[in-house]
Amino acid sequence: MRGCARPPARRTVQPVIRTPGRRRGAALPVLLLAMALPGLTGCQDASPPAVQIRIATGSPTAVYYAFGQSLATILNRELPNVAAEVRVTAASAENIQLVDAGEAELGFTQADALPAVPTTPPTIAAVARVYDDLLHLVTTPASGVRTLADLRGRRVSVGAPGSGTEITTSRLLDVAQLGEDEVHRERLGLDDSVEALRAGQIDAFFFSGGLPVGAVTTLAAQRRVQLVDLGAWTTPLRAHHPGFYVSRDIPRSVYGVDPVTTVANPNYLIVRADLPEGLVRELTRLLMERREELASAHPAAGQMSPRSAINTTPLPLHPGSVAWYNAVKP
After folding, report:
1. Which of 175, 181, 190, 230 fits as disulfide partner to 262, beta carbons 3.0 to 4.6 Å?
2. 4Fe-4S among the record's keywords (predicted)?
3. Has this prediction a pTM greater than 0.85?
4. Which residues are bridge partners to 86 per DSSP?
């Protein structure tokens, strides 16, 4: 049809929210109206530009990715003119950088990877506290590693550069006075850590994730592994880094190995602080109202609730998230 323009190329929401005179929360209603009343344009096949939601996750075999994929499916299905997709990353620290730089709209991160004091004005905000990450120290019976101190002189993967695992593990080893000259540290992601342990190239690896971690489940089904108890280190970690760390159990039912107690800290879903309030309110609503569907993608997502979701220290909640939580308060 000669009078019909081709659909514009996809773009992010950033140009929308910078339009002079436009209220921050107005972008989503305008897009919804345009979708609902196509006849006003005089062209049935024209559509407004898609709002891109890039979700920074982690390894394809870990929790962030499974959670992010399910969330992207829900957003694409239920928000008109939103195009959501996941990005594979090194996880927490890289996700913070991507959201802060405007290269992702949403991301998952451990609480201990966040700056102790947010920037003013904030460039990132929280949507919700979603679940707790548990620090796994995975080894084999043949390694002889039974305690954290047994890592002295061993080859150990401490997590990929830019990951929350590396941050928590580095803090733990520092508190335990196990320096880089005493523990031979490899900086591998989850999948590479599993392969290195299987091949005998390392003696153990750390990984911080929600239960169960798929790659650890698969490894435990294929060969004998064991977890090292880290419960005694929660209090020393809290003394050096207050505000995050608690003890949590990994029962036998998770991986079929002897149960242990370990160090855990919260996970947050973060968002660019300049996203429109109306859009973030809808994101928050779907995150909470579709908990069962998200939990079917990974059980860790089932831990969410509006009551616990608002505890996101040191990050402020995004105003759109605040509006939704306030609206559903009993």
Report:
1. 230
2. no
3. no
4. 55
